[in-house]
Design a protein that fits this description.
By secondary structure, this protein is an alpha+beta fold. The protein has two domains: about 15-160, D-3-phosphoglycerate dehydrogenase, domain 3 (60s Ribosomal Protein L30, Chain: A); about 175-455, 2-methylcitrate dehydratase PrpD. The chain has helices at about 5-10, 15-35, 50-55, 60-70, 80-90, 105-110, 155-160, 175-185, 190-200, 205-225, 240-250, 260-280, 295-305, 315-330, 335-340, 345-360, 365-375, 395-415, 425-435, 450-455; strands at about 10-15, 45-50, 95, 105, 110-115, 125-130, 135-145, 150-155, 285. The strands form three sheets. The protein has a five-stranded mixed beta sheet with strand order 5-2-6-7-8. A hairpin with a 2-residue loop joins strand 7 and strand 8 (about 150-155).
Length: about 450
């Protein structure tokens, strides 16, 4: 099983990887299918189902789908151009995209939120349809946004999770147990094994430059969030708090009587800065999802800015180690809030971040596995219940607490020798089972939990 660090960590836009980025990617794939088809097309239609329907408005799923059908992708998204294109489509009821004839599309009639029909494959399901001049559907595809910006067609999902068809990699571990066995036999660290896998597929230069770019986007996102205030969009009137907290922390520096627990505020503010940017539709990196995008940048920024002896030369090892753990979670359970609740998003992010921090602080493979297990174990059962379907409450603060847990888990693991009772594999399987048992009300539908107990206005 091989999942590249650049699949796990993707540059995209907020507020949701599965509900914003995924639908946009699906729409772009559908355009490619249309271009390869012999049919002559004259119109488009889209239907959102399950979690994509219930929280689609709050997550801008309709907007993302329309923009995807207009040729936009998350990686090269241009906000000003997007606004102009959406306005044009609303006025003309036509979509014009390269390689296809002008296509009829009325956003009010052809963008359907189907709350009653749940598609069988996944909670995040959508149908994209292309019509001929008579209005008959001549091409149709079912897509599932399975978390973290990953998209699969109905056929791909039915084929199974392990769809990697590339050349074999040197260290193809599918479980934490296999990962530790390979590390012991090879004498290599988890990061070194993951690096060898990446280089065998994409080359050393691609890994080096790509890792540098990922951290640059993450860090820039933190900095934007720390210097921007105002009210977040969506109607809840949530005030951005990161800038105010950051300014206060800077003002307190150098004071002799600062409380030791203030370090938690630094971790939290880095994470909150990212998730406020995400909630505003800004550029973020899925880590492994948008809803959990703040945990890892916050943990890494904490390491670089607050840990004595920290070095930017270790950033790649952090990302590689985190990606190795994230791949295990995705392959054996889920990173989708709509599939397994927030334990699959912030819980996975905390496990990945704890592993990465443990690695750059000198942890052994056994200690790294322990760190990931501690962080994930103490997110088990966490629901996904965003108020009004917005990635704001409780999501923003939850990322801050996820970063704190990640750092604590890494620290606890480093205090031991790596031996512990609950294996990471068992914890991941428990998370999968818990997600399967969890009521749909608590899996990104906003039909239960805080979403129904907190006023929406």
């Amino acid at each position: 099983m091989f999942l590249s660090v650049f699949d796990m960590f993707k540059v995209g836009i907020g507020p949701s990887s599965s509900h914003t980025m995924g639908p946009m990617v699906a729409a772009a794939r559908f355009l490619d299918m249309m271009r390869a088809s012999p049919f002559h097309f004259a119109g488009l239609r889209a239907s959102l189902h399950g979690s994509l329907a219930f929280t689609g408005v709050g997550h801008a799923t309709d907007r993302a789908t329309i923009l995807g059908l207009a040729g936009f992708t998350p990686r090269d998204y241009d906000h000003e151009r997007a606004e102009a294109v959406l306005k044009q489509i609303a006025e003309t009821h036509m979509i014009e995209v390269e390689g296809l004839p002008p296509l009829r599309f009325d956003p009010k009639a052809d963008m359907v939120f189907d709350y009653d029909t749940k598609l069988a494959g996944h909670a995040n399901g959508m149908l994209l349809m292309a019509r001929d001049a008579q209005g008959d559907v001549v091409l149709r595809e079912t897509f599932y946004s399975v978390g973290g910006g990953f998209v699969m067609t109905e056929a791909e999902l039915a084929a199974g999770k392990d769809t990697d068809e590339g050349a074999p990699v040197p260290y193809p571990f599918k479980s934490a147990a296999e990962m530790l066995e390979m590390a012991k036999a090879s004498g290599k660290s988890i990061a070194a094994m993951k690096r060898a896998n990446e280089i065998s597929r994409g080359g050393e230069v691609n890994l080096r430059e790509g890792s540098r770019k990922l951290w640059q986007v993450m860090n820039d996102c933190i900095d934007r969030g720390l210097t921007t205030d105002g009210i977040l969009p969506g109607g809840l009137s949530v005030k951005r708090r990161a800038k105010g907290i950051y300014d206060a922390l800077l003002a307190e520096r150098g004071q002799n009587q600062r409380a030791p627990h203030t370090i938690n505020d630094w971790m939290s503010v880095y994470a909150m800065a990212v998730n406020e940017e995400n909630a505003a539709g800004g550029q973020v990196v899925t880590a492994p999802t948008n809803g959990a995008a703040g945990v890892m940048p916050a943990t890494l920024r904490y390491y670089l800015d607050h840990v004595p002896g920290a070095s930017e030369s270790h950033i790649e090892d952090f990302l590689l180690t985190a990606a190795a753990i994230g791949g295990l979670v995705k392959f054996n359970a889920s990173i989708s809030g709509a599939e397994a609740g927030c334990q699959a998003e912030v819980g996975s992010a905390a496990a990945m971040s704890a592993a990465g921090l443990c690695a750059v602080m000198g942890g052994t493979p056994e200690q790294i596995e322990n760190a990931a297990e501690i962080a994930l174990e103490h997110h088990l059962g966490m629901t996904c219940d965003p108020v009004r379907g917005l990635v704001q409450v409780p999501c923003i603060e939850r990322n801050g607490l996820g970063a704190i847990k990640a750092v604590s888990a890494a620290s606890l693991a480093l205090r031991g020798d790596g031996t512990h009772l609950v294996p990471l594999d068992a914890c991941i399987e428990t998370m999968r089972q818990t997600g399967a048992d969890m009521s749909e009300k608590y899996k990104e539908t906003s039909l239960g939990g805080l979403a129904v107990n907190v006023p929406n206005c």
